[in-house]
Specification:
3 domains; eight-stranded parallel β-barrel; 517 residues; single chain; binds 3-methyl-2-oxobutanoic acid; globular; alpha/beta; TIM Barrel; binds zinc ion; 20% strand; Double Stranded RNA Binding Domain; three-stranded antiparallel sheet
């Protein structure tokens, strides 16, 4: 390892990841993900875009107060008010970074910013200097670098390094680049910029052509020493480079990569599940590293080979990314201590006795319905209860559903709604879930449009809990909701209510890549 250099892993699940339509997270959810990322030992956590909304500001503040071992970063356009706000949100962090950016491609400068290239350079220099008044750790991104002119990039980057930027991030904002060309871009920049040795070069690749990880790795081969990525590849449009794929490629092919990461890769599956559970974005079964089938061997020839020697068909060990460590089973005879210990191992710490008692009661209720409680069940149980605790606006009090051959399904739902108290509605539907959603709407009258409804089983077997994701849209705002229960109609109602609650709490948020004013 001595002759290798460290590759800095910069996670932007909480910022770019949250820009996936519907992936908005509450402050508490962001803090939970940040703790999991800290346990994974990522170097930098981009916690949000503080000027975007009060909610984003509060989330960055909370992450900054909580995380001790990773650098906490806040995004800021190249504007004084953004930089000041980011610095304010980060002021409690153990170690902080301000990440400021401005677009440099001809199309962005002309059509979006309506600025001349010289003005862009001036604004970039000014912003880096302003950020340096608050911290030594300043990152600068020329947005849409992947479509920017090379000479112009060299000019602006040289100047922002002189102004004090210590990390230069090269974003392929629209996922337009291909690996060989993107690698050359990094090589050219590092060779041509006279003060390139004063900064770390980073990359931030989007996945519009499915090349985000390949482009990032090509850049690493050509001198990049920071990769920006997200858990499960979450992010704007087709997403960002998936952290788990970048990190495991560098680890598994350490024979060819000139660098190493310091991540505890055994935490990867845990983080993936947490992010998927919170955002309601399921992980496809054949997804590399974290998909349910990533280490499953279906064909007899493969199974036989693996039994004889694992390396015949496996290039990584499942336990190295955290698969096998997650199989411990609890049941109705498990005590409070085993429950609390397992939750702690899963990264969930319940501090108050009252919360622990409530969680343990829910665990016992579940164990009465379900023989074996797996880690996935525990995570769903805790997620479910936190959702309920976080969002007080609408709560499910009770529901009754009738479903009979030859009869129209009917649902009676009782909800507690802020300022209205308890309300009841009875509705018919084409199925029990449809009837339940109609009854909820009859009470809440949100007018939201259902964009997606999906059910999956959390574990195996018919006694498994159903995990339901619901995506709602209203006035252009999209939110995801999740719910789990051994009864999938109840899980569906919980998911719908969770989405409604998120819709209410989601404040108007600025998009970072909107116009620069
Ligand atoms: O994709 C992008 O260009 C970004 C920047 C803000 C780094 O997310
Ligand atoms: Zn991005």
């Amino acid at each position: 390892m001595q002759d290798k250099e460290k590759l800095i892993v910069f996670d932007t699940t909480l910022r770019d990841g949250e820009q996936s339509p519907g992936a908005s997270m509450t402050c508490d959810e962001k803090v939970r993900i940040a703790k999991a990322l800290e346990k994974l030992q990522v170097d930098v956590i981009e916690a949000g875009f503080p000027v975007a909304s009060q909610g984003d500001f509060d989330a960055v503040t909370s992450v900054a107060k909580t995380v001790k071992d990773s650098v906490v970063c806040g995004l800021a356009r190249a504007l004084d008010k953004d930089i000041d706000r980011a610095s304010e949100a980060l002021k409690h962090a153990n170690a902080s970074r301000i990440h400021t950016f401005i677009a440099t491609s001809p199309i962005h400068m002309k059509m979006k910013l309506r600025m001349e290239p010289d003005q862009v350079v001036e604004q970039a220099i000014h912003s880096v200097k302003r950020a340096r008044n608050y911290t030594d750790n300043v990152e600068f991104s020329p947005e849409d670098a992947g479509r920017s002119d090379l000479d112009f990039l060299c000019q602006i980057i040289e100047k922002v390094i002189d102004a004090g930027a210590s990390t230069i991030n090269i974003p392929d904002t629209v996922g337009y680049n291909v690996p060989i060309q993107f690698g050359h871009l990094l090589k050219n920049l590092i060779e041509r910029i006279p003060n390139a040795d004063k900064a770390i070069f980073s990359v931030h690749c989007h996945n519009d052509l499915g090349l985000a990880v390949a482009n990032s790795l090509s850049a690493v081969m050509n001198g990049a020493r920071q990769v920006e990525c997200t858990i499960n590849g979450l992010g704007e449009r087709a997403g960002n480079a998936a952290l788990e794929e970048v990190v495991m490629a560098v680890k598994t092919r350490n024979d060819i990569f000139p660098c190493y990461t310091e991540l505890d890769t055994t935490q990867i599956v845990q983080c993936s599940r947490l992010v998927s559970g919170i955002t309601g974005f399921p992980v496809q079964p054949n997804k590399a590293i974290v998909g349910a089938n990533a280490f499953a061997h279906e064909s007899g020839i493969h199974q036989d080979g693996v039994l004889k020697n694992r390396e015949t068909y496996e290039i990584m060990r499942a336990e190295d990314v955290g698969w096998s460590a997650n199989r411990m089973v609890l049941g109705k005879h498990s005590g409070r201590n085993a429950f609390k210990t397992r939750l702690h191992e899963l990264g969930v710490t319940i501090t108050s006795e009252e919360d622990l008692n409530a969680a343990f009661t829910r665990f016992k209720d579940l164990a009465d319905k379900k023989h074996e409680i797996f880690d996935e069940d525990l995570q769903a149980l805790v997620t479910d209860s936190r959702l309920a605790a976080d969002n007080e606006c609408v709560k499910l009090i009770s529901m009754k559903v009738c479903s009979e051959t030859g009869e129209t399904p009917k649902a009676k739902v009782v909800l507690w709604v802020n300022e209205k108290g308890e309300n009841e509605a009875v509705c018919l539907g084409s199925g029990p879930v449809d009837a339940a959603f109609k009854a909820i709407e009859e009470i809440v009258k949100s007018g939201a449009k259902l964009l997606l409804y999906s059910v999956s089983n959390i574990t195996k077997g018919t006694d498994s809990q159903g995990d339901v994701s619901v995506r709602l849209e209203r006035d252009g705002k999209i939110v995801n909701g999740n719910g789990s229960d051994t009864d999938i109609v109840i899980a569906s109602a919980k998911a719908y209510i969770n989405a409604l609650n998120k819709m209410v709490v989601q404040a108007d948020k600025k998009h970072p890549q909107g116009s620069n004013v």
